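Hello Y.,

Per our agreement to keep a running log of every chain we model this quarter, I'm adding this entry. I've kept the format consistent with earlier entries: sequence first, then predicted structure.
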Amino acid sequence: MRIRIDLALCQGHGVCQDEAPEVFRVVENAEGYDHVELVVADPDESLRPKVERAVRFCPNRTLSLEG
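Predicted structure for the entry above:
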């Protein structure tokens, strides 16, 4: 399972972090805006349900899942 993040779309709402804190973290970038980054780039399959919820509920459709 590989997760893709479109940082141009991310507004740092934190829904992904709420759904899967083991995988996602919201941080502030150099310009002072929040955005998401991965805690783990290739998470274990046991986290798939949480990651799928994070992808599904992202309000800006920033996340996608491969594999």
